[in-house]
Amino acid sequence: MSRFSQWFSKLSIQFLALSLFIFLTFSMGGSSRMDVQSLALLRPISVLFCGFALLTIRQDHFQKSRGILIGFGLIFLLLLIFALPIPQDLAQAMPGQQLIVEIRKSAGVSNAWTSINLVPVNGTNAIASMTIPLAVILFGIQLEKEDMLRLLPLLIGLGAASGLFGFFQVISSSDSPFFLYRLTNEGSAVGLFANRNHAAVLLAMLIPMLAVYASFDVGRPDQSKTRVIRAAALLAVLVPLILITGSRSGFLIAVMGLAGAVLLYKKPRSKKNHRHRSSFISKRFIGMSFGIGVIGLVFVTIFFSRATAIERLFAKSANSDLRQDFWISSLSLVDKYLPLGSGPGSFAEAFRIGEATNLLDATYLNRAHNDWVETAVVLGVPGILLMGAGVLWYVNRVIALSFGIDGNRRSVVVSRLAAVLLAMFAVASFVDYPLRTPTMMTVFVLTIFWFKLASTEARSHLTPNT
Questions:
Q1: Residue 143 and residue 12 in contact, taking contact as beta carbons nearer than 8 Å
Q2: What positions does the domain O-antigen ligase-related occupy (predicted)?
Q3: Choosing a second label site near 251 at 20 to 30 A (CA), which of 6, 59, 166, 413?
């Protein structure tokens, strides 16, 4: 039996199915818009994968991941509550609904039942969007630790593919087939996404992932060195790929990723084996070739992209002041729609109803560009409480991962990686909305599984054998 056959035979059917689903999500889930055609295919596929996952699930799988299931259940329940029909008179008593009720009365539909959501159809879309993370969760709770760790190189590979798409995008025309979405940042390296910020955030997250990947012991010293060289090569390529996205927030997140990589990386502790030592000449040749290749890639990238994306990083944007005004207006909506919020998916309509005169122009704001604020607007007090609970859980887990725990175990290293990735998600969400895309939603769910990996392993050791 070949080495590949031996490796493949160790993979569980759940891991293979989840890997396929992640690949499909990366292929079709790069946009946050509800009218993207690929969602009409991706969401039914996610329902099928949910059904397949239920065929192999056991009761102990639910017990092992109660926290994740409870968190998802609370979010899903909240979305369902916003979709429940209520009488028109009750809707009129809701903050911010008076104008909508008056419009319905003028249209002669005053007796029709409605929902708490300002835009009911968008609330239905929000419920449908949850099928994608649900599929990841139903497979994820069935994976053993080794399968969960194997997802790391898979995400690195898919992220690198997105970066490669971005490279070909900047050296081709705007109608290139490498642009997967019609509404996109034309001329920017958006990769497998529609938005350059989301593409840059994913690339930035690869930096700490590569540091952990390079830290793993794989047996012989030459194998570990090869792993380190691969990670270093991809890391050096990531830097220009992030720059050519032209994303300021992506550049900031990349700096966070580099800091996290420095903290996470540990030299692999492989046993010495003199039979597999590389010669000084070969190592020097590899290093020179690698350096020349990276420098060449940087210059070629800048030349073909005419450095416009890189110039954008340091140019003063006319939209910066407007974005601050948008945030101020968005914060005022939180108070207007308390305590329940305007409803999931209704931010654009809620903003337009009360949009300030000085912000009126030919464009429209589809998102708050601050997911923390937008969540508070659309989900009100329940959303604020859920975010607060998430932050408290994160802080508690980070403290547990920092003290009194063996930091050399793979599960602990990956859990600490997840802590860095979640911090990057949190900061990115202050200036954008990465979690609104199915792809990044999938990465986020996998990160949550990694974050609790060390505690799950500890509990499994305490469980008596029966």
A1: yes
A2: 235-386
A3: 413
Q: 251 φ, ψ to 5°? A: -65, -40
pLDDT digits (tens, 9 = 90+) for 39-48: 999 999 999 9
Buried b vs exposed e over 110-137: b needs ≥16 C-beta within 10 Å? eeeebbbbbbbebbbbbebbbbbbbbbb
Q: In angstroms, rounded to a whole number, what is the distance separating the alpha carbons of residues 466 and 357?
A: 69
Whether 374 and 144 have beta carbons less than 8 Å apart is answered as no
Token pair listed for 354? 């009360």
User: What is the pTM assigned to this prediction?
Assistant: 0.89
Alpha-helical (H) ranges within 337-409 are 347-353, 371-402
Give the count of domains, the chain: 1
User: What's the rounded Cα separation, in Å, for the pair 455 and 357?
Assistant: 52
- Centroid of chain to Cα 284: 38
The residue behind tokens 């995400």 is: 155
Per-residue tokens: 129: 């969007």
- Cα–Cα distance between 377 and 380 in angstroms, integer? 6
In 3D space, the residue among 13, 7, 88, 6 whose CA is nearest the CA of residue 49 turns out to be: 13
102 assigned to some structural domain: yes
Rounded CA gap, 217 and 237, in Å?
24
Specify if 358 maps to a domain.
no
Flag whether 124 is in a domain. yes
Tokens standing for residue 460: 């499994």
Q: Do 61 and 93 form a contact (C-beta atoms < 8 A)?
A: no
| pLDDT, mean of residues 176-189 | 84
Question: Does 59 fall in a domain?
Answer: yes
- Domain holding 28, by residue range, is 13-143
